[in-house]
Amino acid sequence: MEWRQVNLKYKKIVEVPRPFIKWVGGKRQLIPQLSQYFPDKFNTYIEPFVGGGAIFFYLLPQKSVLMDINPELINTYQVIKHKVEELIESLRQHKNNKDYFYEIRSWDRNPSRFRTLDKVERASRAIFLNKTCYNGLFRVNKKNQFNTPFGRYKNPTICDELNLRAVSIALTDAKIQLGDFSESINNAKSGDFVYMDCPYHPVSDTANFTSYTMDDFGIGEQKRLHRVYSELDKKGCTVLLSNSYTPFILDLYKDYVINIVHANRAVNCDPSKRGKVREVLISNKK
Questions:
Q1: pLDDT band at 142 (very low <50, low <70, confident <90, very high)
Q2: CATH code at 135?
Q3: Helix, coil or strand: residue 149
């Protein structure tokens, strides 16, 4: 049975499809809070910062555009959509071993070696590193090299065959696009639903997360994102944006509806700073 054929009640009970990759800041646990702000009806669902795709897998929309600027992430989505069985076979070959982990991680430090990888091998590497690295932290340095250390998990699920096949079906009609969030303006039309889960504005000088891509997402990018948000609003889209609860963000989006949600923050070098934190969900609809 294809997942698009199941009824809504059944879809909420089953566990698959679900995000195939761990993603810091993923919204799966926040769906009960966020879903009350989702539109009842929309044409195309657009997500410019798709990450783990938790909202997409919750909605399972008939039409969607999934975007991200991270080339390894987008390649992995495309491989799952088109070559899931080849990917599963490749993932079966990996092993949860520290020396093996650092060998696989080192491939992007050798450009000539990395260029020899085909799309399936790149996707397999991305999932393997994500499932076995520290805290599922997908992070690269300024040279675009994956730099998260080994995670020391006893028995991580590197190859979740059932879920990968379900994800492949869910992606059948999705448009998967590598690109900047500003390109969402070109994809969007009146009546579409756009959800933006951008890199968060830091709540303190020490809270700034080292990037998912080699490009930083500072104040200038937050302001550019605000301009894109405003353009989507003018187009007649329903637009929701998640971000941190900071004076800068509250002032930047003061002309829109700001809702407060509470999230569990698990990634912090100081254990005392983990736990419930306030975030904002910004809506252009009252």
A1: confident
A2: 3.40.50.150
A3: coil
